[in-house]
Amino acid sequence: MTSQLSPTERSTVRRGAHRARTDRADLHATLDAGLVCHLALVVDGAPRVLPTGYGRRDDTLYLHGSTGARSLREADEVCVSVTLVDGVVYSRAMMHHSMNYRSAVIHGRVRRVEDPDERWEALRAITEHLAPGSWDYARHPNRKELAATTVLALDLGEASVKIRNADPGDDPEDVEANEVWAGVLPLHRTWGEPVPASDLVAELPVPEHVLRRR
Question: What pLDDT score was predicted for residue 8?
Answer without folding.
Answer: 87
